[in-house]
């Protein structure tokens, strides 16, 4: 009987205004501080209470209150990786869209889930030829011209909508008849010179 | 004799229940621990459509800074623009770095965010933030801004999308690499951008564009997303400031509660459910993107720095009718 009452006697000894901290008496976790739990009526330090207490690619084991390798949701992984729930491991994500996940002059291929080079001659340096709007551009959709006040000539490909342009290029009404066919051109434009200067192309 | 003592012992335990010692199924504990120091970099679009948005942000300083002052945070605030063409910009901090010692901080903030509208219309906010925080600028023109011991907050402000060269996740990597990887909360990024173009005034809709890339960074880096087309920035600026300061007003419960049993205390002081200090809510957890049971404190009643917040409750199915209902 005395053994039965021991925990209750201990509880009585706990002051209602006890201070929290390692080794402090407790009834539940609420009597302890942050990153502590109440075990055997005593506050003990733990490594984690929730997964966000752990580094990326680790989760909090709520039985041992330690960080263990693995993930529960995509947010537990590094950017560009998602949580494979069946194995609790972080795996590379497929591209979600050209704009979010691809590098300059790439397109997201939904069939493969990978970003692929556009293949067009965007920003290809060129020179003009008389009576030939595309100048020395290899692509027949391209026009050799200048844009963004850059002095050099580059090939810009025609577009009808933004989806026609790869990542980093903007389908814009350039406000002039660069092709000489009597229509105002929409071109996939970018700061080509700046992109070369920065090593992005 | 001993047997007769048992009820008394039990009574002793129950007597403590008014002080918050009731033994319920769950006792969730949190400590209000903002970072002691935070470096805040505002990346502001300086293209021609941004004048009204810069003015609205500039007049919202008090709402933005209130949480830093409340928490006594050692802050630094600096501004760069999204222009990557003009060599005098291109990741260079514009004006002075604001600190708690800056005279007339409201005026300084208004001046700092008024970066003008002559910048490139080819906005590269993510790249300019990366340039600002890495070599060579961080050891030269921008030296002194990034402190090893401080948390880092990025706030992107633009009415168009980002046109930086890298995939978004490469920028998130680059920003996280500035700080210890093991500390998830040390970096956060928020976006004050266009979400829905139709929410913008008709005069601004032709130039407005959803800030998908900025919003993606904010989602990945635990920040908030605000609508730049909102007429009044006070509420948004308050949310941005609260998030940037790392003060918290939302605490997620570890289990589903029987709302009739839910008790909340701050530093062992019970806070009644009818005092207007806190409420129960199924709030959005940005980590899981799920709505989960949570205690949410009113904006003007956020627990003070260092406070211990405890929620005790029995397991159950949350029924709004049970909230704040006297249990017999």
Architecture overview:
The complex is a heterodimer of chains A (201) and B (328). Chain A is α+β, with helices and mostly antiparallel strands. Chain A has helices at 2-13, 98-101, 192-197; strands at residues 36-39, 42-45, 58-61, 66-69, 81-84, 89-92, 106-109, 114-117, 142-145, 154-157, 170-173, 186-189. Chain A has a domain at 120-201. In chain A, the strands form six sheets. A two-stranded antiparallel ribbon of chain A has the order 1-2. A two-stranded antiparallel sheet of chain A has the order 3-4. In chain A, strands 5-6 form a two-stranded antiparallel ribbon. In chain A, a hairpin with a 4-residue loop joins strand 3 (58-61) and strand 4 (66-69). The N and C termini of chain A lie far apart (82 Å). Chain B folds into two domains: 37-245, Rossmann fold, CATH 3.40.50; 248-322, no CATH class. Helices cover 25% and strands 22% of the residues of chain B. In chain B, strand 10 and strand 11 form a beta hairpin. In chain B, helix 2 (51-58) packs antiparallel against helix 4 (105-113) and helix 3 (61-71) runs parallel beside helix 8 (234-245). The radius of gyration of chain B is 23 Å and the shape is globular. The interface between A and B is large, with 52 and 55 residues.
Write the layout of secondary structure elements.
The complex is a heterodimer of chains A (201) and B (328).
Chain A: H1 2-13, E1 36-39, E2 42-45, E3 58-61, E4 66-69, E5 81-84, E6 89-92, H2 98-101, E7 106-109, E8 114-117, E9 142-145, E10 154-157, E11 170-173, E12 186-189, H3 192-197
Antiparallel strand pairs in A: 1-2, 3-4, 5-6, 7-8, 9-10, 11-12
Chain B: H1 2-15, E1 26-31, E2 37-44, H2 51-58, H3 61-71, E3 74-81, H4 105-113, H5 125-133, E4 151-157, H6 168-176, E5 187-193, H7 212-220, E6 225-227, H8 234-245, E7 250-252, E8 263-266, E9 269-271, E10 278-285, E11 290-297, E12 308-313
Parallel strand pairs in B: 2-3, 2-4, 4-5, 5-6
Antiparallel strand pairs in B: 1-12, 7-11, 8-9, 8-12, 10-11
């Amino acid at each position: 009987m005395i053994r039965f009452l021991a925990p209750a006697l201990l509880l009585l000894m706990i002051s209602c205004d006890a201070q929290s901290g390692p080794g402090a008496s407790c009834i539940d976790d609420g009597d302890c501080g942050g990153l502590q739990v109440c075990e055997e009526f005593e506050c003990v330090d733990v490594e984690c209470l929730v997964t966000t207490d752990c580094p990326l690619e680790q989760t909090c084991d709520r039985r041992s209150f330690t960080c263990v390798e693995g993930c529960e949701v995509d947010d537990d992984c590094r950017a560009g990786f998602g949580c494979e729930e069946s194995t609790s491991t972080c795996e590379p994500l497929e591209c979600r869209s050209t704009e979010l996940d691809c590098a300059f002059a790439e397109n997201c291929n939904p069939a493969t889930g990978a970003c692929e080079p556009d293949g067009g001659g965007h920003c290809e340096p060129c020179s003009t030829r008389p009576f030939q709007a595309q100048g020395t551009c290899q692509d027949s959709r391209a026009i050799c011209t200048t844009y963004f006040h850059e002095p050099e000539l580059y090939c810009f490909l025609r577009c009808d909508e933004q989806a026609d342009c790869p990542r980093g290029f903007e389908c814009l009404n350039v406000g002039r008849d660069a092709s000489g066919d009597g229509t105002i051109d929409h071109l996939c434009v970018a700061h080509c010179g700046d992109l070369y200067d920065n090593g992005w192309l | 004799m001993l047997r007769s003592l048992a009820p008394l012992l039990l009574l002793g335990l129950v007597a403590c229940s008014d002080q918050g010692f009731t033994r319920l199924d769950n006792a969730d504990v949190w400590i209000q621990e903002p970072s002691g120091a935070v470096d805040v970099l505002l990346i502001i679009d300086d293209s021609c459509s941004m004048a009204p948005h810069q003015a609205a942000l500039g007049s919202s300083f008090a709402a933005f800074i209130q949480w830093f002052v409340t928490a006594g945070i050692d802050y630094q605030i600096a501004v760069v623009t999204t222009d990557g063409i003009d060599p005098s910009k291109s990741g260079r901090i514009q004006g002075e770095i604001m600190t708690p010692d800056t005279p007339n901080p409201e005026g300084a903030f208004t001046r700092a965010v008024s970066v003008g509208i002559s910048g490139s219309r080819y906005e590269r906010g993510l790249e300019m933030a990366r340039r600002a925080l890495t070599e060579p600028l961080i050891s030269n023109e921008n030296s002194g801004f990034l402190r090893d011991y401080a948390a880092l907050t990025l706030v992107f402000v633009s009415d168009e999308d980002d046109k930086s060269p890298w995939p978004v996740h490469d920028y998130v990597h680059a920003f996280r690499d500035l700080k210890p990887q093991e500390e998830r909360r040390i970096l956060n990024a928020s976006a004050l951008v266009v979400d829905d173009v139709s929410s913008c005034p008709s005069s601004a809709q032709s130039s407005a564009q959803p800030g998908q890339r900025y919003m993606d960074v904010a989602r990945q880096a635990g920040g908030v997303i605000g609508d730049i087309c909102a007429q009044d920035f006070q509420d948004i600026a308050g949310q941005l400031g609260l998030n940037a300061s790392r003060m918290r007003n939302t605490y997620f419960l570890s289990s589903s509660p029987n709302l009739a049993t839910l008790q909340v205390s701050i530093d062992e002081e019970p806070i009644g459910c009818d005092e207007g200090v806190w409420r129960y809510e199924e709030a959005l957890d940005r980590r899981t993107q799920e709505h989960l049971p949570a205690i949410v404190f009113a904006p003007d009643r956020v627990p003070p720095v260092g406070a211990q917040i405890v929620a005790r409750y029995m397991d159950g199915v949350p029924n709004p009718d049970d909230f704040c209902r006297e249990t017999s």
